[in-house]
Specification:
The complex is a heterodimer. By secondary structure, chain A is mostly beta strands. In chain A, 0% of the residues lie in helices and 56% in strands. Chain A has strands at 4-7, 10-13, 19-25, 32-38, 45-51, 57-58, 67-73, 76-81, 90-100, 103-108, 112-116. In chain A, strands 2, 4, 5, 6, 9, 10 and 11 form a seven-stranded mixed β-sheet that branches. A four-stranded antiparallel β-sheet of chain A has the order 1-3-8-7, with no helix packed on it. In chain B, a hairpin with a 2-residue loop joins strand 6 (54-58) and strand 7 (61-66). Chain B is built from no helices and eleven strands. In chain B, strands 2, 4, 5, 9, 10 and 11 form a six-stranded mixed β-sheet that branches. A five-stranded antiparallel β-sheet of chain B has the order 1-3-8-7-6, with no helix packed on it. Chain B is mostly beta strands. Chain B has strands at residues 4-6, 11-14, 19-25, 32-38, 45-50, 54-58, 61-66, 71-76, 85-92, 99-100, 104-109. Chain B is 0% helix and 55% strand. Classes of the chains: A mainly beta, B mainly beta. The A-B interface holds A 1, 34, 43-44, 46, 49, 91, 93, 102-111 and B 31-32, 34, 36, 41-46, 49, 51, 88, 90, 92, 94, 97-98, 100, 102-103.
Chain lengths: 117, 110
């Protein structure tokens, strides 16, 4: 297996503030990480693909200026929710791509529950 | 548009029975196939992956892949209430992002 951590696990903030979420691959290097959002009782929704050393690729409908992604090293990607509003309250989950002999495998972090008041 | 389809369920099975979860995919070039389990309020956890046609067993879990039919399944033997979760099928194509299915909710009744 492989271990991916996320920090913080839970955050409550006021409307208008920015929140940074960290995703780390602890025992492998990940040139690619992914950020997902999941609302209650709904499917995972891919927000963006984070590539080490280059700009993130955002899915259609995801505002890149609102959800800032930085992948500064092979083990760390960050998601910053800027000027958060109550509708941004959700479960944010990252995953990291581990390269293997037969292909890539995605390992998920434990998720960050964001509540915007 | 690459698609991965799963029956949303819920699939209910009695404790001790075999649970069979199914997944179909649209891209014939898909090369890797994964099953994740997601408990309510938690993130997905990798259960199994399979690359070649046939069966792959790991404990109570068996993944089955049929590339000709574009079909992958997960069998859970001796189902336990703790297996109650949403099971996500994911399909990968080398160099491209995974495509996840919507998930099947499994309920194992004591």
């Amino acid at each position: 297996g492989a271990v991916v951590s996320q920090h913080p696990s839970r955050v409550i903030c006021k409307s208008g503030t920015s929140v940074k979420i960290e995703c780390r691959s602890l025992d492998f290097q990940a040139t690619t990480m992914f950020w997902y959002r999941q609302f209650p009782k709904q499917s995972l929704m891919l927000m963006a693909t984070s590539n080490e050393g280059s700009k993130a690729t955002y899915e259609q409908g995801v505002e890149k200026d609102k959800f800032l992604i930085n992948h500064a090293s092979l083990t760390l990607s960050t998601l910053t929710v800027t000027s958060a509003h109550p509708e941004d309250s959700s479960f944010y989950i990252c995953s990291a791509n581990k390269r293997g002999g037969q292909g890539d495998t995605q390992y998920f972090g434990p998720g960050t529950r964001l509540t915007v008041l | 548009q690459k698609e991965v389809e799963q029956n949303s369920g819920p699939l209910s099975v009695p404790e001790g029975a075999i649970a069979s979860l199914n997944c179909t995919y649209s891209d014939r070039g898909s090369q890797s196939f994964f099953w994740y389990r997601q408990y309510s309020g938690k993130s997905p956890e990798l259960i199994m992956f399979i690359y070649s046609n046939g069966d792959k067993e790991d404990g109570r879990f068996t993944a089955q892949l049929n590339k000709a039919s574009q079909y992958v399944s997960l069998l859970i033997r001796d189902s336990q209430p703790s297996d109650s979760a949403t099971y996500l099928c994911a399909v990968g194509l080398y160099g491209q992002n995974f495509v996840f299915g919507p998930g099947t909710r499994l309920s194992v009744l004591p």
